């Protein structure tokens, strides 16, 4: 019941998506927001966050409005910084309650990040249905605090940890933006030569950039390999110069706004193991070389990565073991191993849940009641 002829069967909703801060939190929220608009174009979606520059840019590109609250996280802080952050909470809660009243919110979707806390708590106090999307195998501190208050908890992984009421939990997968899913339509015959996509997140990953630069002079298959490399702003010039020096074909940018076309070109993805990245890889059936961020909270990136590695969908190198020579050997092995890549791609695709946003929105409509507007 999701074709064009049925879209008017879903009543419009006023939805507030709370949280963000990083792409890992924000992009799943954008995917869910898009699905609400697909159901009924008269639905209104407002994002409420801390107003970081990344959030503002991403939401402007996606076409969603944002309102901000003055709130700080407490994880990793001590002393006066922790006290100062706590002192902001009552005012942030009142501000959030006012926003929910202004937009006549029917539903609040928490996507993680400290800014989700006051908004989700205000929804609970006002009796507005509130749901939580948990992207990682190890939930963050804000979501752990919100689990008891949430009507539903949508998790990405079957082995998600934490005290979650089984009656509330739904294993939906992590929502992926439709424009990313569109990359699945690009066939293998359109990707020639062998293309490696290197991406370390929206800010890049210095350790990965350094290892790739060290690997380039050692790649034996350099004449038949191409790179698409998102470096982050700090390393862009240095990385571009390294490709130029070795004569290896590469598209190098600090940040790609059009990630779908880059995914579509990729035969192999070298990346971190954030939950959104893992969801995108598996939804598209992409083989990956995963290099988890070693300082992620509760080591959740390594645990995320193991969900793919254990199923043969990816290989993993810990950052402490990363080297130019080892990376060059990986590139040569994959470039010369189409059967290996095909097997990994098949296993990756089997793990994917490209319908996650649809499943979540289906369930949200059940929660708010009155599914049909006609």
UniProtKB/TrEMBL annotation:
Record: residues binding UDP-N-acetyl-alpha-D-glucosamine: 22-24, 136, 177, 202, 301
Protein's recorded name: UDP-N-acetylglucosamine--N-acetylmuramyl-(pentapeptide) pyrophosphoryl-undecaprenol N-acetylglucosamine transferase
Assigned EC number: 2.4.1.227
Record bears the keyword Nucleotidyltransferase: no
Purpose: Cell wall formation. Catalyzes the transfer of a GlcNAc subunit on undecaprenyl-pyrophosphoryl-MurNAc-pentapeptide (lipid intermediate I) to form undecaprenyl-pyrophosphoryl-MurNAc-(pentapeptide)GlcNAc (lipid intermediate II).
Superkingdom of origin organism: Bacteria
Pathway(s) where this gene product acts: Cell wall biogenesis; peptidoglycan biosynthesis
Similarity-based family: Belongs to the glycosyltransferase 28 family. MurG subfamily.
HAMAP family referenced in this protein's UniProt entry, alphabetically: MurG
GO MF annotations, alphabetized: UDP-N-acetyl-D-glucosamine:N-acetylmuramoyl-L-alanyl-D-glutamyl-meso-2,6-diaminopimelyl-D-alanyl-D-alanine-diphosphoundecaprenol 4-beta-N-acetylglucosaminlytransferase activity; undecaprenyldiphospho-muramoylpentapeptide beta-N-acetylglucosaminyltransferase activity
